[in-house]
Amino acid sequence: MASLLLAHALGGCAHLLPGAASPEGGSRGKPSTGWLAHGSRLPDRGPGFEALRTETAGGLHFGTDRLVGMVRRSARAVMRDGVAVPLKVGDLSGLRGGLVTRHHSHRNGRDVDLLYFARDAVTDRPVVSPGFVRFNRAGASIGVATPLRFDAARNWRLVEALLQDPHVGVIRVFCAAWIKALVLDHARRTGAPSWLVERADLVLVQPGDSAPHDDHFHVRVACTPAERVLGCQDGGPLWPWLDKDWEKGDATPLDDDALLALMEPIPPGYEHGPPVGESSPRAAAAKPEDPAYSTPSSALVCR
Predict the structure, then answer these.
(1) For residues 162 and 156, what is the distance between their CA atoms, to the nearest angstrom?
(2) In the beta sheet, which residues pair with residue 75?
(3) pLDDT digits (tens, 9 = 90+) for 196-234
(4) What is the pLDDT of residues 273-297, one digit of tens each?
(5) What is the span of the domain harbouring residue 2?
(6) Residue 241 lies inside a defined structural domain of this protein
(7) Backbone dihedral region of 191: left (phi > 0), alpha (psi from -120 to 50 degrees) or beta?
């Protein structure tokens, strides 16, 4: 309560608040422990895509501007092949990021699940994905009533669009090792540019600390330089081809854990602050009587 009163007292100089977050939107902290400031919302559906779960049904639709834009652009790119079947989009992050019970990461607006494109195993026609369908090493579906086949062509087209998006830096596309093999085999057979295949070979990887991801792509994008200086941590390698636009040149030498530890606490109740129970290390340690939360308004002067 004291922090909210202090915010009102300061009015136009809220940037002087101890712990006040930057008005800039974006990703903060790590994908597994961070939060999201002023995120953008992905609609339930749009050109070439459709959410697996609406927000009413518990879907998570918020991410950084760049992540949401990437989903939209990639869906349109795949749609250009003339097939009307939409890309099914799983979770992004919550309104302010933070803990997600069904994910280890997805906390700071830079992760999104994209379900695999599939075809009917009998007719070979593209079909709308019924959900998180698992595929085996031969590309056949596992455990669904209507047998499906992994659509290597359209899944490669999706990976191609993700890796060539000029407005975002994709650093990881998590998927099972055999899914990666199916995608890359198709790319090589159809004469995809060798540099793009090599790039995909580096970015596509099976996670070592979770399920193999044989039922969806888990895409993670890089922090922007502006986000890094506010505590964002990539959670993956910054590839050489991203250096020009996504380099860490303007980050402090104290990047990454040390910088996050020095971030000031966020007063509770701020819409751009971390969700309840999710905060920076210093915020977690702060007590209600901490001067950072109880400085009388009369002692503050704004210029």
Answers:
(1) 10
(2) none
(3) 999 999 999 998 877 889 999 999 999 999 999 899 999
(4) 677 665 444 343 333 333 332 333 3
(5) 1-20+264-303
(6) yes
(7) left
